[in-house]
Every structure is written in C-alpha cells, then in structure tokens.
Amino acid sequence: MAENSRGARIACGTGGRIISFGPLNRAGPKTQWNNTMDNAQLHRASGPAPKTHVEHFVPAETVCPKKIDFVVDNGSIDYVSFDGGCEGSLTAIATMIEGMHMDFVIDRFSGITCGNKCTSCVDQLCCALRQYKEENEDA
C-alpha cells in the first residue's frame, strides 16, 4: 500500500477499473438548483468538447457513484462527472479540480475516506487517474 505526500494510505486495490473509452453521449447534470447558471454550471451542463475521448471508470462497490467519467488533456483534468452519489458535493469537487494537473489531484486527494468506508468518491477518482496514467505512460 502506497502513501501520498500527506502520509495518507492509498488503497487502490479495492476494486475500480476503467471500462471503456469513447465520446460522451449525455448532456451533464439532469437538474439545476435555479434558473441562472454561472460559467462553471454552464461548462458542466455542456460536458466536454464533442470530439474529446472520455474515460469511463467503475469505482469500488463501497462508494455511491456507479461511474466516474473524466477527460485528461496533457496531464490536466478537463472534465469530471460522477454518476450517482452526493450531487452537490461531487459537483463542487468536479468543478474545483477541473483545470488542475492530475498529479496534484492524486497527491492531494488520495486516501480520503468517507464515513467508515476505506475509500471515498474522490479517492476512487484518484485510483482512476493513477490507472489512466499507468495505461498512458507511453502515449
């Protein structure tokens, strides 16, 4: 088991995997809290650019989201969407990390747990990013 720079344990062997690659075929969040949209909400509602390849990751069964979609371009996270889970918190996390370098996100958020679970939604995103990084080292 590895540790990040804060000494948090990184447990990726809890069962997540990237299942496919391909274009995003949905239009972002299904609900809006009000009728006005700021730039972040507008970006999230529109999703990534149409020709962008989106990674689809199935996280460990112990977390609420059933799928995490993300786009990485030159090491930068351009798009993140969680399918399921705490909509407000996960939208905030996705909005916050979009534009950050994936190494920074992995270092900062790996090992975070949720309640009495050994992982969390954001920890599973880090697992997905580490797996993506390993699979695309030579790309």
Measure the end-to-end span: 26 Å
Q: Helix-strand pattern, N to C?
A: EEEHEEEHHH
Low-confidence segments: 19-43
Please report which band the strand proportion falls in: under 5%, 5-15%, 15-25%, 25-35%, 35-45% or over 45%.
15-25%
Number of E-state strands: 6
Q: What proportion of the residues is helical, as a percent range?
A: 25-40%
Strand order of the largest sheet: 3-4-5-6
Q: Number of helix segments?
A: 4
User: By helix and strand content, what is the structural category?
Assistant: alpha+beta
Backbone shape = globular
- Please give the radius of gyration in angstroms: 14 Å
Describe the main β-sheet briefly: 4 strands, antiparallel
Give the arrangement of secondary structure elements.
Blueprint: E1 2-3, E2 9-10, E3 17-23, H1 39-46, E4 53-58, E5 67-73, E6 76-83, H2 87-97, H3 102-109, H4 121-135
Antiparallel strand pairs: 1-2, 3-4, 4-5, 5-6
Short overview:
The protein is an alpha+beta fold and 139 residues long.
Explain what you see.
A four-stranded antiparallel sheet has the order 3-4-5-6. The protein has helices spanning 39-46, 87-97, 102-109, 121-135; strands spanning 2-3, 9-10, 17-23, 53-58, 67-73, 76-83. Helix content is 30%, strand content 23%. It has one domain (2-25, 40-135). Strand 5 and strand 6 (76-83) form a beta hairpin. With 139 residues, the chain is an alpha+beta fold.
